[in-house]
Design goal:
Layout lengths: L4 H27 L6 H5 L10 H28 L9 H21 L2
Length: about 110
C-alpha cells in the first residue's frame, strides 16, 4: 500500500512548525539582555542591558513561519479527519497558540 501524500505533507509541515518554534526560543534567549554577575564586575566587562532587536527580528520571522506552517498543517489535518483512525494533531494547535502569542508580544514591544 502506498503512503498517503497528505499524511506525508502533514508530517513535513508538523516538523517545520516545531523547528520554527525551537529556533524562535533559542534566538529569543540569545537576544535577551544580560545580567551583571560578580565575574563581569570583577573584570570590568561590558554588559548589554537592552534587547538585541535585530536578532529579535529573526525570532519574529521564525514565529511567523511557525504560525503559517501550523495553519497549513491544521488545514491539511482537517482534510484527513474523515477516517475513524485519524486524529487532530494537538502540537499544531499548541504551535499556533504559542506563535500567535509570541508575535503579539513582539509587535506590542516593538510598536509601544
Amino acid at each position: 500500500m502506498r503512503p498517503d501524500p497528505l499524511l506525508k505533507l502533514l508530517q513535513i509541515v508538523h516538523c517545520i512548525a516545531i523547528i520554527a518554534l525551537i529556533a524562535a526560543l533559542f534566538i529569543t534567549a540569545a537576544s535577551k539582555p544580560s545580567h551583571q554577575s560578580f565575574f563581569d564586575q570583577f573584570h570590568n566587562l561590558r554588559i548589554h542591558y537592552d534587547w538585541n532587536y535585530p536578532l529579535l527580528r529573526y525570532a519574529a520571522v521564525s514565529l511567523f513561519i511557525g504560525l503559517v506552517s501550523s495553519i497549513a498543517g491544521l488545514l491539511i489535518n482537517s482534510r484527513r479527519l474523515r477516517r475513524k483512525k485519524d486524529q487532530l494533531h494537538v502540537t499544531l494547535i499548541v504551535s499556533l497558540i504559542i506563535s500567535t502569542i509570541g508575535l503579539m508580544l513582539y509587535f506590542n514591544n516593538i510598536y509601544s
